[in-house]
Amino acid sequence: VTRALIIGTGLIGGSVAAGLRAAGWRVTGCDERAAARALERGLVDEIGGLDSARAVDAVVLAVPVGATPGVLAQLAPHLARETVVTDVGSTKLGVLAAAASLPWPSRFVGGHPLAGTERSGPDAADARLFAGRRCLLTPGGADADAVALVENLWRALGAEVSSMTAAEHDQLLAAVSHLPHAVAFALAAAAGSALAGLGDVAGLHGAGFVDTTRIASSDGVMWRDIFLANRAPLLDALDRFEDELARLRAAVALGDVDGIAAAVERAHAGRRRVLG
Ligand code: NAP
């Protein structure tokens, strides 16, 4: 039986735990508050401390990326030479830099499943969350057997695995995830303030508002950490967004029919490029 220790049994960690259990792994959950609920929901076999790391094949970190360096430092004294350590964090360069201080850095394999929801905590966890979804690995200089184990872990969860460098990962995710979340937060806030003086209009909206702002209800701590960890690529993506918005705004202000059509055409092309 392959054994895993999941640190952080929230939405993603709880889903990894439940999926691995369903695939026949033995799973220990480690958490300050969430693990009791994870055990109650049957997401993990048992609750343990960081010292459980010594007895497992793989440790999966599933805490906010800002908490990852501190948790890795606390975990370090409990690691055995052969234990593989991986994570699910939404940014990778910072996590990889923190993992370089582990006693055996070549046992660390960065990971990021491209699956999730705007909900958090063990109650939102789902063993099937990763089925048919992609998982990006940033192995860097990791040992081949460690990479193979992490690939097997994600395949056991039904995900399709690909690898890239941490820098490529962070640039890609800035464009396809971090920018959309930043814009959704700003969009929902702007819509709220544009309603000033209209009285009670709750429920008076179309599907467009729901579609473009669903992710604006995502967790604030998680997104604070992601924005701060991926600052430079995100600022670059936000500059491009501001430029596009300014061009669209100018076309609307000038009644420039061709300018508006060109902005929509660039939108369609960008969407095709991302979605394939
Ligand atoms: P979540 O449901 O809020 O779970 C976070 C977990 O981390 C909880 O178990 C929490 O435990 C623990 N935690 C929070 N702060 C901590 C700290 N300072 N030290 C130690 N543990 C801490 O969040 P999530 O959505 O699963 O996100 C976890 C990771 O997955 C993040 O790195 C995120 O970037 C990544 N990710 C998220 C998504 C998504 O769509 N949500 C998708 C892909 C990757 P307590 O509740 O007991 O404090």
How is this fold's topology laid out?
Elements: E1 3-7, H1 11-22, E2 26-30, H2 34-40, E3 46-47, E4 58-61, H3 68-75, E5 84-87, H4 93-99, E6 108-113, E7 134-138, H5 144-156, E8 160-163, H6 166-194, H7 207-213, H8 220-229, H9 231-254, H10 257-275
Parallel strand pairs: 1-2, 1-4, 2-3, 4-5, 5-6, 7-8
Antiparallel strand pairs: 6-7
Bound molecules: NADP nicotinamide-adenine-dinucleotide phosphate.
Quick summary:
The protein has 276 residues and is α/β, with parallel strands linked by helices. It has ten helices and eight strands.
Describe this structure in words.
It is a single chain. The protein is α/β, with parallel strands linked by helices. 49% of the residues lie in helices and 13% in strands. The protein is built from 10 helices and 8 strands. It has an 8-stranded mixed sheet, with helices on both faces. Strand 7 (134-138), helix 5 (144-156) and strand 8 (160-163) form a beta-alpha-beta unit. It is elongated. It starts with a strand and ends with a helix. 36% of the residues are buried. The structure holds NADP nicotinamide-adenine-dinucleotide phosphate (NAP). NADP nicotinamide-adenine-dinucleotide phosphate binds at residues 8-13, 31-34, 62-65, 67, 71, 88-90, 112-113, 116-117, 120-121, 219, 222, 226. Residues 8-13, 31-34, 62-65, 67, 71, 88-90, 112-113, 116-117, 120-121, 219, 222, 226 line the site of NADP nicotinamide-adenine-dinucleotide phosphate (NAP).
